[in-house]
């Protein structure tokens, strides 16, 4: 097994990570070595590099890749939102059941427990009118 060092040139903390990853993957000297590497993995490495250049620690940078169900996605910028949506799409496709899967069940019904809901005064008023 050989170790190969591939330099990342012309990349700053303001660079677009997807363009840089695509440029690196299509570079004539590195194309043969990066052919089997997914584009998303190269983008993730460029994001970690960019975050390091901006002064973030590795732990903070890796935390941005985790999906938090309590996170407010309305507060993210367009780039972060697109990345989170891409992660959700990947997770959905991984967990998706297809018709040819052995454990596929057509018309599956699942009953969920209702959480205890608090009564509001405006709910009581609207019931009387109908």
Automatic annotation (TrEMBL):
Report the leader peptide range. none
Q: Which family does it belong to?
A: Belongs to the CEP19 family.
Instruction: Kindly list the organism's lineage.
Output: Eukaryota, Metazoa, Chordata, Craniata, Vertebrata
Location in the cell reads: Cytoplasm, Cytoskeleton, Cilium basal body; Cytoplasm, Cytoskeleton, Microtubule organizing center, Centrosome, Centriole; Cytoplasm, Cytoskeleton, Spindle pole
Q: What keywords were assigned to this record?
A: Cell projection, Cilium, Cilium biogenesis/degradation, Cytoplasm, Cytoskeleton
What Pfam family does this protein match (any one)? Answer: CEP19
Name of protein: Centrosomal protein of 19 kDa
């Amino acid at each position: 097994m050989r170790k190969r060092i591939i330099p990342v040139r012309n990349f700053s903390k303001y660079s677009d990570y997807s363009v840089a990853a695509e440029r690196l993957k299509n570079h004539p000297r590195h194309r043969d070595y990066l052919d089997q590497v997914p584009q998303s993995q190269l983008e993730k490495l460029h994001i970690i590099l960019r975050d390091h250049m901006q002064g973030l620690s590795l732990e903070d940078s890796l935390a941005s890749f985790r999906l938090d169900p309590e996170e407010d996605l309305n507060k993210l910028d367009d780039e972060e939102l697109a990345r989170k949506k891409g992660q959700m799409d990947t997770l959905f496709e991984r967990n998706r059941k297809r018709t040819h899967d052995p454990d596929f069940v057509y018309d599956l019904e699942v009953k969920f427990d209702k959480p205890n809901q608090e009564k509001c005064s405006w709910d009581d008023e609207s019931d009387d009118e109908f």
